Amino acid sequence: RPRSHTVTTTSSSFTTNLSASSSTLAYDREFLRTLPGLLMVTEIVLGLLVWTLIAGTEYFLYPAFGWVMFVAVFYWVLTVFFLIIYMTMTYTRIPQVPWTTVGLCFNGSAFVLYLIAAIVDASSVTKELDSHNYNSWAASSFFAFVVTSCYAGNTYFSFISWRSRTLQ
Q1: Is Transferase included in the keywords of this UniProt record (predicted)?
Q2: Residue 142 sits in the same domain as residue 108
Q3: Is the model's pLDDT at 141 over the cut of 50?
Q4: Are 23 and 15 in contact (CB under 8 A)?
Q5: Are residues 43 and 78 in the same domain?
Q6: pLDDT score, position 126
Q7: I need a surface site. Which of 21, 43, 161, 167 has the fewest CB within 10 A?
Q8: What is the model's pLDDT at position 62?
């Protein structure tokens, strides 16, 4: 006697969403026209300026400038990473990550550590240390405070976004 074979297949919504969303790479050029987008580009440009001004000197002889270099390079790389995530709208394809909380923690920590680094940078700049590096260190100190204010602005916008998500 012939047997009836029934095969049942199921697909999870995760696989369906993953295959549907990963087929095209989105690009959000409007993000750069928002204030958080402009602040992020400013953080990247001026953050690069901070660490190149220090890297062009003999900063390794002074531990304080090593700390400033660490903070500047670390947050420069992470800011470039987050800009790519926002520009490609990757955050929409990974809904499991609480992006508003991640953004708030990132910008808040960047603000605090950059503020500490800017203060360390400014307090370490003296003509007595090394006169031919003085101008570079003074300029890096100024730009470190400007980058700090940009991260403060993005922390504010991240907080507003996070707050509106938690109230829903």
Answers
A1: no
A2: yes
A3: yes
A4: no
A5: yes
A6: 82
A7: 167
A8: 86
